[in-house]
């Protein structure tokens, strides 16, 4: 056969772009290894598709993969802030079914509205109580800035003193 490396030819013809200093026999062996590995991966993929198709009782595994890709595409489009409204449409792409926003009615039971307001107030109060134990970030940043200012002021004063000493030494 053409790809049979068991009977290596005693002469290998070089193409126009081939390097004459490269070992062509080892190059052919590597290419065959790559082909064999690719074939093994393809066989494994075919087996996986067949088992999935048997489990789901689907006739064609490629159709299943196509449906999976379409499903993932729809999920990614809906994950944007505009929920895919302004995204470019692909050829033959089905219309996306997006989640509709549910509005609360303007008129209704006042007891429900009171209850919702109470729950919201309780959540805010819980958030306030938990934040009391946290560090006041503004105060901490102010303290850090003050310490940095003191350090830089001290550094400038030592630099000025050193400059004065050096100047005095230069005059004498």
Structure characteristics:
single chain; 172 residues; mainly alpha; 63% helix; Rhodanese- sulfurtransferase
What's the arrangement of secondary structure elements?
Blueprint: H1 24-56, H2 61-78, H3 110-131, H4 137-171
Characterise the protein shown here.
The protein has helices at residues 24-56, 61-78, 110-131, 137-171. It is mostly helical.
Compute the number of strand runs.
Answer: 0
**Uncertain segments:** none
Report the β-strand fraction as a percent range. under 5%
- Topology as a string of helices (H) and strands (E): HHHH
How would a crystallographer describe the biggest sheet? none
Through-space gap between termini:
99 Å
Shape: flat
Helix content: 55-70%
Cα radius of gyration in angstroms: 37 Å
Coarse structural class: mainly alpha
| Nearest-integer average pLDDT | 79
User: Can you count the helices?
Assistant: 4
Protein name: Rhodanese- sulfurtransferase
């Amino acid at each position: 056969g053409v790809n049979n490396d068991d009977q290596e030819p005693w002469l290998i013809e070089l193409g126009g772009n081939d390097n004459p200093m490269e070992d062509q026999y080892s190059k052919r062996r590597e290419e065959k290894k790559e082909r064999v590995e690719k074939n093994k991966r393809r066989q494994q993929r075919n087996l996986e598709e067949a088992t999935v198709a048997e489990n789901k009782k689907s006739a064609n595994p490629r159709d299943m993969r196509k449906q999976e890709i379409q499903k993932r595409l729809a999920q990614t489009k809906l994950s944007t802030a505009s929920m895919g409204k302004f995204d470019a449409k692909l050829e033959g792409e089905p219309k996306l079914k997006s989640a509709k926003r549910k509005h609360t009615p303007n008129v209704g039971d006042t007891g429900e509205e009171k209850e919702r307001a109470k729950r919201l107030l309780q959540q805010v109060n819980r958030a306030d109580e938990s934040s009391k134990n946290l560090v006041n970030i503004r105060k901490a940043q102010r303290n850090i800035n003050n310490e940095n200012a003191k350090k830089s002021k001290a550094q400038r004063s030592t630099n000025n003193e050193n400059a004065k000493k050096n100047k005095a030494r230069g005059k004498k």
